[in-house]
């Protein structure tokens, strides 16, 4: 039976006091906490399976609240995400929910926000989505390909800190978003990486590619996390390595 294996790790890094990243893998969520080692979950290929990373906005109150809200909602909606339109509607619903939660808090969470990026694995395709600068990459024989759209433009001269052009929440007044949604083919052995910029900012793309070429599943997730730590761990690090596999039939024994 075809299956989907998802190996993930989430860690605050070396410089942040706490983790504002959250993660959804099917119905399972990991919200603003720390894993000491990668966890691998395996699902039968069939019902739409969502894998999403949300990176709460630093410098805003409640980043961890916004990221947790988004992945929990995506986990709930995941089995119904059967089309690009459904995914786009779900991300827009998450955006509205972040603003509603901020408004209902009495002002303490004003302008809380988060990015989100992920996949919905279906029997014959993967739906790729993102808002912000968390990433989805495909790892194949031809190398590593960025499937998400980076909402973080290059730094202008003299401005060391970049700003995302859109995110879920993130401003005092409601702002609509335009989620990036696309469809990628799904074949046996297909592999993807879903991650926050705590990995992709400090670790060069060729290093990420080399790790994914050398390792699968939990070992790949661990080595990616370790590379981000070795690069200084300047931000929260959340990594999910996704692989589609085909179970081998048991060997036939002769009499």
From TrEMBL:
Residue ranges of domain PPM-type phosphatase in the record: 3-244
Show the InterPro entries listed in the entry. PPM-type-like_dom_sf (IPR036457), PPM-type_phosphatase-like_dom (IPR001932)
The scientific name of the source species is: Streptomyces zinciresistens K42
Q: Which residues form the signal peptide?
A: none
The source's superkingdom equals: Bacteria
Q: Which PROSITE patterns did the record assign?
A: PPM_2
- Protein name per the record: Protein serine/threonine phosphatase
Stored SMART domains: PP2C_SIG (SM00331), PP2Cc (SM00332)
């Amino acid at each position: 039976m075809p299956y989907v294996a998802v190996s993930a790790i989430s860690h605050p890094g070396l410089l942040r006091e706490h983790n504002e990243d959250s993660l959804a893998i099917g119905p399972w969520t990991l919200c603003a906490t720390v894993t000491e080692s990668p966890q691998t979950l395996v699902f039968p290929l069939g019902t739409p399976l969502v894998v999403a990373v949300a990176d709460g906005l630093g410098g805003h109150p409640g980043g961890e609240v916004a990221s947790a809200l988004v992945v929990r909602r995506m986990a709930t909606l995941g089995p119904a995400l059967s089309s690009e339109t459904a995914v786009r509607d779900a991300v827009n619903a998450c955006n509205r929910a972040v603003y509603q939660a901020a408004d209902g808090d009495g002002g303490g969470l004003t302008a809380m926000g988060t990015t989100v990026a992920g996949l919905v694995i279906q029997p014959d395709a993967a739906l790729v989505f993102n808002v912000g600068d968390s990433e989805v990459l495909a790892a194949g024989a031809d190398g590593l390909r960025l499937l998400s759209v980076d909402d973080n433009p290059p730094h202008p001269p003299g401005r060391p800190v970049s700003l995302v052009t859109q995110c879920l929440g993130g401003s005092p007044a409601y702002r609509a978003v335009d989620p990036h949604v696309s469809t990628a083919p799904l074949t046996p052995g297909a592999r993807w990486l879903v991650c926050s910029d705590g990995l992709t900012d400090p670790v060069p793309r060729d290093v990420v590619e080399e790790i994914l070429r050398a390792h699968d599943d939990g070992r790949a997730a661990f080595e990616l996390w370790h590379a981000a730590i070795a690069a200084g761990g300047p931000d929260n690090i959340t990594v999910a390595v996704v692989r589609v596999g085909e179970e081998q039939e048991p060997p036939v024994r002769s009499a």
